Amino acid sequence: MKKHLLMAVVTATVLMASCNKDDDNENGEDIVFGTETVVGQGKAVSFLKNANDHGKMELGFTFDMAALQGLPDHGEINFLLNLPKEALDLTPYKHISFDWAPHGHDPSGVYDKPHFDIHFYTISRDEQNAITVANPDMQKLPDASFLPKQYVPEPGGIDKMGKHWLDITSPELNPVNPAPFTSTLIYGTYNSKVIFLEPMVTREFFLTKPDTIINVQQPDSFAVRSHYPMRYKMKFDQASNKITVALIDFEHR
Q: By C-alpha distance, which of 128, 57, 39, 55 is closest to 47?
């Protein structure tokens, strides 16, 4: 989410096939993995959990705490995480881009902290890379029913991302007494379609080892019938020293 990005795309190395399951899962949960990639001094890996029980389904990724160290001080890096095939069949999401913004971005004084933009895209990587601000499709907005009522579009747009929509009820956007930015949830559009859901989280907040679940504000309508998340979570696990970021509580809409 920056108007002038120094883009360094990090291609994920596939270390596990999507059909692989976690044989060591002590909770008896069904997990399939997508790709694993190096992030900072650690690693991140995508997953789909409980695909056979949609109410308990989780889609996201885990990363170890070392991933928060050794990140570059200049230029944005996009860490690509491909999803398991099962996720493509059950949800509208195609891939995750775990993006590091070392100096944040506009608006100044709000989102200019070092943070991660975590895009869950509903379009292919090729479609994403074809997005340009100069294309008139950037200004083609979806029907209002496809976005939550409290979301408003930012001016312009961003190449290879789209137009970002902000939740005007977010604490950091309070015009009278704004709270420091820690995390928020953004929607993205292009060519009259909703194309991503984006938790945006500061590095500082991840370092607190969070354990939180946040509601996903819902639109009145969905353009594509599929399973959509009602909430998302950010959870630190002491035993593994890892953080999970996942869309959860899916419902068919």
A: 57
Q: Which pair of tokens denotes residue 186?
A: 């953004």
**Is residue 122 within 8 Å of residue 94, measured between CB atoms?**
yes
Q: For the chain, which residues make up each domain, given as ranges? A: 7-252
Cβ–Cβ < 8 Å for 86, 48: yes
Q: pLDDT for 125-148, tens place per residue?
A: 999 999 999 999 999 999 999 999
Is 0.70 topped by the overall pTM? Answer: yes
Q: Which two tokens stand for residue 31?
A: 């997990």
Closest among 244, 212, 246, 217 to 230, alpha carbons compared = 217
- The SS3 of residue 213 is strand
Contact predicate 80/100, CB 8 Å: no
CA–CA dist 159, 121 (Å, integer): 14
Q: How many CA atoms lie within 13 A of 59 on its CB side?
A: 35
CA–CA distance from 207 to each of 90, 103, 107 (Å)?
Answer: 32, 17, 23
- Residues in the chain, overall count: 253
The two three-digit tokens of residue 75, written as one number: 């230029």
Helix runs in the chain, H state only: 85-90, 125-129, 203-207
